[in-house]
Specification:
heterotrimer, A mainly alpha (300), B mainly alpha (342), C alpha/beta (281), B: 342 residues, 0% strand
Chain lengths: 300, 342, 281
C-alpha cells in the first residue's frame, strides 16, 4: 500500500493548526461556563499586564522618595496611600507584581521539569530505582516546607534568587508523585506497548510517549501550587529573606509597614490585599482547570 | 493479626528514623556546607587571622566532612545544639523556654479549627450546593489564599487597635508578666492551677486573636477535607439503610457518618497541626508571641545559624512525628483493619 | 387469616421522574398489597428498586414522585412531612437492602446497630434496647449472640449479615416489608435459608412483603403474586408462571436455563417484539 494520497506538508500544518485552534476554543467554551474561573483568569491576566507594562501603568516611580508626602492615607492622588518614605504604594504594588510573576514562573519552570523527570523515571523504571526515588520523595514531602525554605534562604543569603531556589527545593515532591502516578497508568497502555514492540528506546518512550500524557495534570497541579508559592514567597519576604529593599516585594512591604500599622494601617494592609487577590485568583484558575482538564476528577 | 500490626508499626518507625536522619543531614548541610563562610558569620568579617584560624579549628572545619557530621550527630545526641548568639544561652535552653508558648498557641488553634471546621464541612456536604455549602467553600477558598501573617496584622488593627475587643501583642499585659510560675509553660493552664483568674482572663484575651487567626487558615483545609470525606460516605448504602431505619439527619451525621470519617480526620488534624506550627513561626512576631517562631525570626535577623537550624530541626522532628502518628491512627483505629473471622 | 381489612399498601398511578428527564423511571404503576407476598420482577433499569424506595420516600430530592394514590394502612403518604416519614420508617415500614457488606455501617458493632432500631422507635433505655436486639438476633437464628453483637459487619459472613439486616429492620415489627434483592449478594446455598426466615417473620407479624428481584424463578417459587416490570411500567401481574401472556414475561421465562432440558443456546429476549407490545411513553 503506497501512501499515494498523503497530504501535502502545507495541508498537514493547516490541519494541525485548525485542530489546535479548535482545541483552544473548546477549552474557552468550557471555561466561559465557569464564572469564578473566568474571574480568576482575569485577575491573573491583570497581574501579568501589570508586571509587563509596569512602567507605563504605574502612576509614580516606585523608588522615588518624597518625605513631604510620607504616610498619606489612600486618596485620589495616591490610591493606596504612601509609605514612610513617601513612595506611592499603588505603584510599588504594580512593580511588585513583577517580582511575584518572576517568582511563580521561575519556581514552576524549575519544579515542573524536575518533578516530571523524577516522576516518570521512577514510574517507568520500577523496582529499586522506583522505591529509592519514592522513599526520598516521601521524606522530602514530610519536611516542613516553609521552615526548610527559611533555613535554606538564611544559609544562602537573602535575595530573590535564594528564595526561588529555596521554595523550589521543597515543592518538587508533589509534582514527582503525580508524574509517577500518571506514568504507572500510561506505561501499561497498548500504544506504549506497541511503540516498545517496534523498537522505541526507553528514552524515546519516556519523552515522546509518557511525558506528554503527564503534562495536563502537572499543569493543573502547578497552577494550583502557584497560590501556595505566592504565599510562601510572601512569608519569606516578610521575614526579610526574599527580594531585598528597596525592591517592592509585597511580603517585605507588609513587614516594613508593620511598624506603622496601628496608626497608618494602609502601609501594611495594601500589599496583603494584593497577595490575597493574586493567591485567590490562582486558586480559582487552578480549580477550574482541574474541573475542565481532568475527566477523572469528580466535581464537588 | 496483632503481629501483623506490630510489624507494620515497626516498619513505619524505621521509616520515621530514616526520615529523621535525612533531616539531620539536610540541616547539617545547610549549616556547614552552604554558607560561604560560617566562620566569618561567627567571628565577624574583620577578625584577625589568628582568631579566624582558632575559630575554624574550634568549629572543626578543618576536618573532613563526614567527621564533622559525626561530631554534629554526637553533640545532638548529647542535647547540644550550639550557643545562641543573641542570648548567649545554649540553644536547647532557649528553645525549651520558647516552645510551650508555641505549643499553647498551636493547640488552641487546632481545637478551634476542629470544633468549627469539622461540623461545617459535614453540614456543607450534607446540604450540598445550598447556601451553607457555598459559604463553606468561600471560607475555605479565602483561608487557602490569605497570608496568615498579614491576616494577623489586619486582625490586630481591627480587633485590638480599632475595637479593643482583645488584648494586644504578647502573652499578657506587661504588668502581669512573670507573676505566674511556669509549671507547664502553658499560661492558661498554669494560671488556673494557681488560681490567678486575673492572669487567666488576661492571657485568654491575648491568645484568642492569634489562635483564631491561625485557626482560620487551618480551617480552610479541615473544612474542605471533611466535606470531601463526608461526600464520599453519603453515597454509601448504609446511609440509606440508616434513613430507612428512621434515623434523623443529625443522628446520621453524628452517629453514622462521623465514625466513618474519624480516622481520616485524624490524619487531617495531624497535618493541620504541622501547618499551624509553620504558620505560627511567621505569625508569632506579629503578636510578639514569645515562642519558637519569634525566636527563629529574631535569629534570622542577626544570622544566628545555630538557632535557626535548631528550630528547623525541632519543627521538622515534630512534623515527622505527626505524620507518623496519623499513619498509626489508620492502623490502630480503623475497625476494618481488624481480622476477619471465618 | 384475618378478616379482609384495608390493604396495607394502595398505589395508583405512581410515577417517578428524575430531574428534567422526560422518561419516567417508574411509569404509572398501580397495585394493592395486603398481608401477602408480592414479587416485583424486572431487569436492571426496569424501575423496580426505584419503586421500592419511592414508596418509602427514600429517593434523593432530584426525584419527583407523583401518584393519584399512595396509601399506607389507609393513610396517604403523598404529602407526609419528613418527620412523619421518619416515624414510619424502620417502624411500620421496613427496607431490606441487597448487600450487608455495604448496607450495614462498617465501623459500628453489630449489636449497636440493631439496638439503634429499638432506640429510635421504642421508649427504652440503652440496656433494654440491647436486650431487644439480642432477642431479635436470636429470632433470626444467629448463634453465639453475645460475641456476634460485638463484631463488625465485615467480620461475619454474607448470610449472617443479611440476617442481621432482617433483625435490624424487622425489630419494630413493621407491617410493610420491602425487600430489595435480599439474596442477590449471597451464596446460593444460603439464599433459601434467608428467604425462609423472611417469610416466617413476615407471616408472624401478618405483614405484607414486597419482594423485588431479577430472579423470576425465585420470586415465582416464593411469592403469591408476581408483578413484572419493564421500562418503568407494570406489564403483567400473575399468580403462576404458566399464566404468563406478555411477550416480555414469556421471554424471561424462556430464557431460564433448565437443567432437565439443556439446550445449545439459551433464548434471549426479542426486544423488538416486546417494544411493539409496549410502546415508549
Amino acid at each position: 500500500m503506497t501512501l499515494q494520497n498523503s497530504i501535502s506538508n502545507d495541508e498537514a500544518t493547516k490541519s494541525y493548526a485548525a485542530r489546535f485552534v479548535r482545541g483552544l476554543r473548546g477549552m474557552w467554551d468550557k471555561l466561559s461556563q465557569e464564572p469564578l474561573g473566568l474571574f480568576g483568569f482575569a485577575i491573573v491576566l491583570l497581574l501579568i499586564i501589570c508586571a509587563v507594562f509596569a512602567p507605563w501603568i504605574a502612576p509614580y516611580n516606585p523608588a522615588v522618595q518624597n518625605l513631604a508626602e510620607a504616610l498619606r492615607p489612600p486618596s485620589a492622588a495616591h490610591w493606596a496611600g504612601t509609605d514612610e518614605f513617601g513612595r506611592d504604594i499603588f505603584s510599588r504594588l504594580i512593580y511588585g507584581a513583577r517580582i511575584t510573576i518572576l517568582t511563580v514562573s521561575a519556581v514552576s519552570l524549575i519544579v515542573g521539569p524536575l518533578g516530571l523527570i523524577i516522576g516518570i523515571v521512577s514510574g517507568f523504571a520500577g523496582g529499586r530505582i522506583d522505591s529509592v526515588l519514592m522513599r526520598f520523595t516521601d521524606i522530602v514531602l514530610s519536611f516542613p516546607s516553609l521552615i526548610l525554605a527559611l533555613a535554606f534562604a538564611a544559609a544562602l543569603g537573602a535575595g530573590l534568587e535564594t528564595a526561588i531556589v529555596a521554595i523550589s527545593l521543597t515543592s518538587w515532591p508533589a509534582i514527582a508523585r503525580l508524574a509517577r502516578a500518571e506514568t504507572l497508568i500510561v506505561r501499561n497502555t497498548d500504544y506504549v506497548s506497541a511503540a516498545r514492540l517496534y523498537g522505541a528506546s526507553p528514552s524515546r518512550l519516556l519523552f515522546l510517549y509518557i511525558a506528554p500524557m503527564c503534562v495536563p495534570s502537572i499543569v493543573v497541579r502547578l497552577t494550583l501550587n502557584m497560590a501556595g508559592i505566592i504565599l510562601t514567597a510572601a512569608s519569606l519576604g516578610f521575614l526579610g529573606l526574599g527580594a531585598q529593599p528597596p525592591a517592592p516585594e509585597w511580603g517585605a512591604m507588609i513587614s516594613s509597614g508593620r511598624k506603622f500599622m496601628l496608626d497608618n494601617w494602609w502601609v501594611a494592609v495594601m500589599p496583603g490585599i494584593a497577595i490575597l487577590m493574586t493567591s485567590l485568583a490562582f486558586n480559582l484558575v487552578g480549580d477550574t482547570l482541574r474541573d475542565i482538564l481532568d475527566p477523572r476528577h469528580v466535581r464537588s | 493479626m496483632k503481629e501483623f500490626t506490630l510489624l507494620e508499626i515497626i516498619r513505619r518507625l524505621g521509616q520515621l528514623l530514616i526520615s529523621l536522619f535525612v533531616l539531620l543531614i539536610v540541616t547539617f548541610t545547610i549549616g556547614r556546607v552552604l554558607p560561604t563562610d560560617p566562620v566569618g558569620a561567627i567571628v565577624g568579617e574583620l577578625a584577625d587571622p589568628a582568631a579566624y584560624t582558632a575559630m575554624r579549628q574550634k568549629l572543626g572545619l578543618d576536618l573532613p566532612i563526614y567527621e564533622q557530621f559525626f561530631i554534629y550527630l554526637n553533640s545532638l545526641l548529647h542535647g547540644d545544639l550550639g550557643v545562641a548568639v543573641l542570648t548567649g544561652n545554649a540553644v536547647t535552653k532557649d528553645l525549651a523556654q520558647a516552645f510551650p508558648a508555641t505549643l499553647e498557641l498551636a493547640t488552641l488553634a487546632v481545637i478551634i479549627s476542629t470544633v468549627l471546621g469539622v461540623p461545617l464541612g459535614m453540614i456543607a456536604a450534607f446540604f450540598r450546593d445550598t447556601w451553607i455549602d457555598k459559604v463553606a467553600r468561600v471560607i475555605s477558598l479565602v483561608g487557602h489564599s490569605i497570608p496568615v501573617f498579614w491576616f494577623g496584622v489586619v486582625g490586630l488593627v481591627i480587633f485590638y487597635a480599632g475595637l479593643s475587643w482583645v488584648g494586644g501583642p504578647g502573652r499578657v499585659d506587661t504588668y502581669l508578666e512573670g507573676l505566674v510560675e511556669p509549671r507547664t509553660g502553658l499560661l492558661l493552664i498554669d494560671s488556673l492551677l494557681v488560681g490567678d483568674t486575673e492572669t487567666f482572663w488576661n492571657a485568654a484575651s491575648h491568645i484568642i486573636l492569634p489562635a483564631c487567626i491561625l485557626a482560620y487558615s487551618a480551617m480552610a483545609y479541615i473544612t474542605r477535607m471533611t466535606r470531601s470525606f463526608t461526600l464520599e460516605q453519603l453515597n454509601q448504602d448504609y446511609v440509606i439503610a440508616a434513613r430507612a431505619k428512621g434515623a434523623s439527619s443529625l443522628q446520621i451525621l453524628t452517629g453514622h457518618l462521623l465514625p466513618n470519617i474519624a480516622v481520616q480526620l485524624v490524619t487531617v488534624l495531624a497535618i493541620s497541626y504541622g501547618t499551624l506550627l509553620e504558620g505560627a513561626v511567621v505569625t508569632e512576631i506579629v503578636f510578639s508571641w514569645p515562642g519558637i517562631g519569634q525566636y527563629m525570626t529574631n535569629a534570622l535577623m542577626i544570622g544566628d545559624m545555630n538557632a535557626i537550624l535548631a528550630g528547623t530541626l525541632i519543627i521538622g522532628f515534630i512534623f515527622m512525628i505527626l505524620n507518623f502518628i496519623s499513619d498509626l491512627a489508620y492502623l490502630l483505629l480503623d475497625p476494618r483493619t481488624r481480622e476477619v473471622t471465618p | 387469616m384475618s378478616a379482609p381489612d384495608k390493604p396495607i399498601l394502595q398505589v395508583k398511578n405512581l410515577s417517578v421522574r428524575f430531574g428534567k428527564g422526560a422518561i419516567p423511571a417508574v411509569n404509572n404503576v398501580s397495585f394493592d398489597l395486603g398481608p401477602e407476598r408480592l414479587g416485583v420482577v424486572g431487569e436492571s433499569g426496569s424501575g423496580k428498586s426505584t419503586l421500592g424506595r419511592a414508596i418509602m420516600k427514600l429517593l434523593p430530592t432530584v426525584a419527583r414522585v407523583t401518584a393519584d394514590q399512595l396509601d399506607f394502612e389507609g393513610n396517604t403518604l403523598l404529602d407526609r412531612r419528613e418527620r412523619e416519614m421518619r416515624a414510619l420508617r424502620g417502624n411500620r415500614m421496613a427496607l431490606i437492602m441487597q448487600d450487608p457488606r455495604y448496607s450495614l455501617n462498617p465501623v459500628i458493632p453489630i449489636g449497636k446497630q440493631v439496638a439503634e432500631a429499638a432506640l429510635l422507635h421504642r421508649r427504652v433505655s440503652r440496656s433494654e434496647a440491647r436486650e431487644l436486639a439480642a432477642k431479635m438476633l436470636e429470632q433470626v437464628r444467629i448463634t453465639d449472640i453475645e460475641r456476634t453483637m460485638r463484631l463488625y459487619p465485615h467480620q461475619v459472613s454474607g448470610g449472617m449479615g443479611q440476617r442481621v439486616m432482617i433483625a435490624m429492620m424487622l425489630l419494630a415489627k413493621p407491617r410493610l416489608v420491602i425487600a430489595d434483592e435480599p439474596t442477590s449478594a449471597l451464596d446460593v446455598s444460603v439464599r433459601g435459608d434467608v428467604l425462609n426466615l423472611l417469610d416466617e417473620m413476615v407471616r408472624e407479624n401478618n405483614s405484607g412483603l414486597l419482594l423485588i428481584s431479577h430472579d423470576i424463578r425465585m420470586v415465582a417459587a416464593f411469592c403469591q403474586r408476581i408483578m413484572v416490570m419493564y421500562k418503568g411500567k407494570v406489564v403483567e401481574t400473575l399468580e403462576r408462571l404458566e399464566d404468563a401472556e406478555h411477550p416480555y414475561t414469556r421471554g424471561l421465562i424462556a430464557a431460564l436455563p433448565d437443567p432437565a432440558h439443556p439446550v445449545r443456546r439459551l433464548q434471549t429476549l426479542d426486544r423488538a417484539l416486546i417494544d411493539a407490545a409496549e410502546p415508549r411513553p
